[in-house]
Amino acid sequence: MLFDTHVHLNAEQYNEDIEEVIERARAAGVETMVVVGFDRPTIQKALELIEKYEFLYASVGWHPVDAIDMEEEDIAWLEELAAHPKVVALGEMGLDYHWDKSPKDVQKEVFRKQIQLAKKVKLPIIIHNREATQDIVEILKEEGAEEVGGIMHCFSGSVETARECVAMNFYISLGGPVTFKNAKKPKEVAVDIPLDNLLIETDCPYLAPHPYRGKRNEPAYVKLVAEQIAELKGMDYEEVARITTENAHKLFSIER
Ligand SMILES: [Zn+2]
Ligand SMILES: [Zn+2]
């Protein structure tokens, strides 16, 4: 049984065939998924999906790329949504220095506000990091994010950074890149970090694992991520599936 901790089934890429995509996920053994909303329209769509499917949960937050669009009333809206029984985390939030739509200081401010909100509503946080590792770790420390913990989503950093995040009460979530032949760091992290601190995800429709690299990703492929971790760790696939699923239930406080 698998738990995909990061899906964007709320993306327009699934407008035509979401039923089939969900069916294939269930057939592949994906028991539960967290739909991540990161701006007004995607949060709205995530809320619709969790009403419709009992095995879908949502995380709501503001993406760093769009930090510049976030208004004061949006933080109030996130706080309201945090009370929904199927909203299990806040995010994705963080820093993204690859795109320059939102200035760094605006990204940092929006990130800090969301961590403060998470502490207030007592929900874990999902962190998006692109080319901003040092600043992210610094802000998590300064804001005392350890209190709520959460997920370093689609982690692509070093073993050292992964250990530092685990020490701060964060899970390391591996996605499609761990299956890429040239992805040295995610493979090292998969070997080094204990299974008790790992989660799996697709981040679909992005970052499809090998052999679907470059194609539209979907939750059924999270199985390939679990298989790759099992191979790298020299463990049974069933054990990787079971423990990463247990970890996700624990973090999101979802009863089985
Ligand atoms: Zn992300
Ligand atoms: Zn995402």
Q: What does this molecule look like?
A:
With 256 residues, this protein is α/β, with parallel strands linked by helices. The chain has nine helices and eight strands. It has an eight-stranded parallel sheet with strand order 1-2-3-4-5-6-7-8, with helices on both faces. Strand 7, helix 7 and strand 8 form a beta-alpha-beta unit. Helix 8 (222-233) crosses helix 9. It starts with a strand and ends with a helix. It binds zinc ion (2 copies). One zinc ion (ZN) binds next to loops.
Question: How does the SSE layout of this entry go?
Answer:
Blueprint: E1 2-7, H1 18-27, E2 30-37, H2 40-52, E3 56-60, H3 72-81, E4 87-96, H4 104-121, E5 125-130, H5 133-142, E6 150-152, H6 159-167, E7 170-174, H7 184-192, E8 198-200, H8 222-233, H9 237-252
Parallel strand pairs: 1-2, 2-3, 3-4, 4-5, 5-6, 6-7, 7-8
Helix pairs in contact: 8-9
This protein binds zinc ion (ZN) (2 copies).
One zinc ion (ZN) binds at residues 92, 128, 153-154.
Concise account of the structure shown:
With 256 residues, the chain is α/β, with parallel strands linked by helices. It has nine helices and eight strands.
Low-pLDDT parts are none
What topology, given as strand order, has the largest sheet?
1-2-3-4-5-6-7-8
- Number of beta-strand segments: 8
Average pLDDT taken over every residue: 97
**Structural category:** alpha/beta
How much helix is in the residues?
40-55%
